[in-house]
Design goal:
With 194 residues, the chain is mainly alpha-helical. The protein has helices at residues 3-24, 34-41, 45-49, 55-76, 89-101, 103-111, 118-133, 144-164, 171-183, and strands at 83-85, 134-136, 188-191. The longest helix has 22 residues, at 3-24.
């Protein structure tokens, strides 16, 4: 496969993803057809089926892209640091900015209503990074994996609340609130540089 073919494939996939997201703003997934998506994307059903088997698979690809980008934003929160305090709102800010900049897809993923299991995928993508790239600064009686899951799934509830409030507070205000909560549970973490 040549570079131009790769670009064409990626361009077509992006058009299909964009089309599905645009249509999901108007209709439920189960009431959409592949024909509607292909018409919105400016391609045909054969093209669709050469990339995806159904709309669920297309939506799953959208969520995968979203989670990869989320992980990049999460890493930005501690990139270039050796350690950080749990009360540092700047550490939480990149995730809130990412969610705010991607409100529609964030709502789909975090609420978990359109793609079952997307809430768990959201949390697991963050847990994976915390488990392999961070460690607590101080000793704890609580097992680190248990604390990691508690903090991540607790943060999910915090994100859901923010969505339900229609993003009323700014990403900065939400990062500060989450930092205050995290500060009550652990002091800080060290970045693992392998």
């Amino acid at each position: 496969m040549t570079i131009s073919e790769d670009r064409r494939i990626l361009r077509t996939q992006k058009k299909l993803k964009t089309a599905l997201l645009a249509l999901l703003k108007k209709k439920e997934l189960n009431s959409l057809s592949i024909t509607e998506v292909t018409q919105q994307a400016g391609c045909n059903r054969v093209t669709f089926y050469s990339h995806y088997k159904d709309l669920q698979e297309l939506l799953a690809a959208i969520v995968d892209d979203y989670l990869q980008e989320l992980q990049s934003y999460f890493r930005k929160s501690f990139q270039y640091l050796e350690r950080f305090s749990s009360t540092d709102a700047q550490r939480h800010l990149p995730i809130f900015e990412f969610i705010y900049q991607n409100q529609f897809i964030s709502s789909l993923v975090i609420k978990g209503e359109v793609l079952p299991g997307s809430q768990n995928q959201f949390c697991e993508s963050l847990v994976q990074i915390s488990a392999t790239e961070l460690r607590l600064e101080e000793a704890s009686d609580t097992e680190v994996p248990a604390l990691n899951y508690f903090m991540t799934y607790g943060s999910l509830g915090f994100f859901i609340h923010w969505l339900k409030e229609d993003f009323k507070d700014s990403p900065e205000a939400m990062a500060k609130k989450l930092a205050d909560l995290h500060g009550r549970m652990y002091g800080g973490a060290v970045v693992i540089n392998d």
